[in-house]
Amino acid sequence: MGAKIKQDVNGAAEHDPNVGTSGSAESTMSDLGTKLRETRKASGKTLQVLAKEVGCSPSMLSKIETDQATPSLRTLHRILAALDTSIVALFASEGTHDETSVMRAEERPSVKVLHGGASGAILLERLTPTFPGLMLDANIHTLEPGAESGGDIHHVGQEVGYILQGRVELIVSGKSHFLGPGDSFFFASNLPHHYRNIDPGTSRILWVATPATF
To answer: Distances from the Cα of 140 to the Cαs of 41, 69, 127, 143, in angstroms?
Structure first.
């Protein structure tokens, strides 16, 4: 699962502000679309039903499931919430697991999400394993210039973050917080929140949440 897989997207894309498409789109966590499709079918939901719950068209959801389109962070969260799952659960492996886990830098699994339009991509690099029942979720969010999360997200839990590089605007309950390297933040996840990169270059955030959401 640590292997990086490039997937080309061909043809014109249906416009959706929360979904990005590109002639060289890349998904670095293999089989995300397939896992989402399998989980949807196992839940008994049709494309039409899930699309209505998520707030996108059935055709766009189909493109996401077949890796022809990349969802925004907000859309991915809505899909996972509607399916009552998470990235951790989707890629959880069977069997027993050691209480200690080491993940080498070159083996770190990740998934790329887009907001669409001229916005840059966001790469979620996993720091925690995908064990069943994982209570803590940690990622490095790497934001390309212009990247944004695609609208408010809110859910159960708590979150803490630390700015590693660049400058970020974090909006929680409508209030903006402008953060730079060394700054940290904490908020209750039930508060509406989103963020965007306000640096001309790349920004990186160490982000920890509980329970595991992505």
So the answer is: 30, 22, 7, 10
* CATH class name, domain 111-210: mainly beta
What whole-number distance in Å separates Cα of residue 105 and Cα of residue 127? 9
Question: How much is the pTM?
Answer: 0.72
Local structure of residue 163 (DSSP, 8 states) = E
Can you give the residue ranges of every domain in the chain?
5-90, 111-210
Q: Which of 50, 22, 213 minimizes the C-alpha distance to 114? A: 22
The reply to whether 111-210 shares the fold of 5-90 is no
Number of CB atoms found within 10 A of residue 18's CB = 22
pLDDT at 114 exceeding the cut of 80: no
pLDDT at 24 (0 to 100): 29
DSSP three-state, residue 125: strand
SS3 64: helix
Cis check for the bond before 200: say yes or no (omega within 30 of 0): no
Q: DSSP letter at 73?
A: H
Q: 119, 124, 139: which is closest to 196 by C-alpha?
A: 119
Domain at 5-90: CATH code? 1.10.260.40
Tracing tokens 């959880």 back to the chain, one arrives at: 92
